[in-house]
């Protein structure tokens, strides 16, 4: 069963006469670690936002075709409800952080979903361990490094236990060491925690060792959708 199914999908930003992405047919399967790559402007972010319902919900514009997440049409589901199925960390992850302290940030997502204080405590401890931020709950978010703030953004979307994690250009503000650490973490979430992963990256060398599928976009279309040979998975 597909975790995400995009069918005959075209999307036009407001006022655009040509689609930003077109003729998209893509199934993301349970357990996939799928990488979307391609040149600047080819539609990677738009495709990512189509998966999460952010286009057209946040951006307006017009879509044709269908997108299903866990079998539900994104047009039929409210974005907050989708967030418990598909977690998104955008390239500008700092805009997703809305509280003062690390602990509050992760609790916030769960409070909004009606989790009890006990559930919040238990789940917070689990996600902080997953992303390597244990013991930092009292820290001010402004005192964290960029890599730590990004892991906090990941922790806060994992808090509500989504089965899919989408990361748009997650390494754009990281140095090579931070990039390697980030993909090691995401690889672990995929392999050991069973989370289906979609990563957008224009640069492939750091991410391919963890990926099983590679999608290439050119001019708004999927040019290639291929398995990653296991020989490239050296990590
Ligand atoms: P990528 O992520 O591969 O760089 P995008 O998905 O951001 O590509 O952009 C795909 C196309 O859609 C580009 O032609 C871009 O200019 C256009 N586009 C992106 N965002 C908007 C927007 N908010 N309004 C209008 N056009 C947009
Ligand atoms: P912008 O002027 O940045 O294009 P938009 O109207 O497109 O603003 O977006 C409205 C708000 O929704 C912004 O704060 C943006 O960060 C947020 N947003 C966009 N995509 C998502 C997403 N996938 N999940 C959550 N919030 C999003």
TrEMBL record:
Domain of life: Bacteria
Positions of the ABC transporter domain: 6-235
Coiled-coil regions, chain positions: none
Cell compartment(s), UniProt: Cell membrane
Annotated family: Belongs to the ABC transporter superfamily.
Protein name per Swiss-Prot or TrEMBL: ATP-binding cassette domain-containing protein
Taxonomic source organism: Veillonella magna
Parent sequence residues shown: 211 to 445 of 491
